[in-house]
Amino acid sequence: MTTESHAPVTDSRLSRVANNLVIGLARHWLALFNSAWAVYVLTPFLAPVLMELGLDGPARAIYFFYSFLCHQLPDHSYFLFGPSLVPQDAALIAGGMSDSTSLFVQRAFVGSEAVGWKVALCERDVAIYLGVLASGLLFAALGKRPRPLSFKLFVLLATPMAIDGLTQLFGWRESSWLLRTITGLLFGFAAVWLAYPYVEDGMRDVLEDELRRQRTAAGRQPSET
């Protein structure tokens, strides 16, 4: 009897908590997205800082985590605390990287005092996610939400990165840090302006539905009591 009498009360509390979580997500989704992207793209820069401070354990944990998300090839990555932000093969090998042609061997090199310490995301990924973060912050700053980017324009802005990446992948040419950065930023910008207006509309509908459900439940409560 006691368990049965308390069950509706517990279910009601859980339902209210769940509804409030949904409403909070619908209201603050953009701040949550921007915060998540900020953590994601800035944490890789913490790895070289920690290496410079001699905190190898936490730094290598960051490298390990991001190794599942990025190729981390040294000659495609930024290096901090060294003579060059974008050292190439000769400087990397002189700084301690193996001259092996194996990409798995190369990607394990995180740097040295001579060449600096590698950022845990490659140049293109840094550009993409910085573009996503910057565009998300701009989206938040605009009072009037823009219309979604047309799919044709999205493809147009994403094509330079596809061409740059694929031609390099097949060995037809070698890209540069500048091209990786520009094409990555364009893609990050295009992805946000294609997706975020739709997310905004969806979250607005969710918020209206949940608030309507709450008002309906509150209106029924006195008669049920």
- Count of extended strands: 3
Strand count, sense and barrel status of the largest sheet are: 3 strands, antiparallel
Low-confidence stretches: none
Radius of gyration: 24 Å
What number is the mean pLDDT? Answer: 89
- Spatially, the strands of the biggest sheet line up as 1-3-2
| Broad structural category | mainly alpha
Number of helices: 7
Distance between the termini: 20 Å
CA-based shape = elongated
Strand composition percent: 5-15%
* Count of folded domains: 1
As a percent range, the share of helical residues equals over 70%
H/E series: HHEHHEEHHH
Question: What attributes does this structure have?
Answer:
225 residues, mainly alpha, three-stranded antiparallel sheet, 7 helices
Give structural notes.
The protein is mainly alpha-helical and 225 residues long. β2 and β3 form a beta hairpin. A 3-stranded antiparallel sheet has the order 1-3-2. It has one domain (2-224). The model has no long low-confidence stretch (mean pLDDT 89). It contains 7 helices and 3 strands; from the N terminus they run ααβααββααα.
Secondary structure elements and their pairing?
Layout: H1 2-52, H2 56-67, E1 77-80, H3 89-94, H4 103-107, E2 111-112, E3 116-122, H5 123-141, H6 151-169, H7 177-224
Antiparallel strand pairs: 1-3, 2-3
In short:
The chain is mainly alpha-helical and 225 residues long.
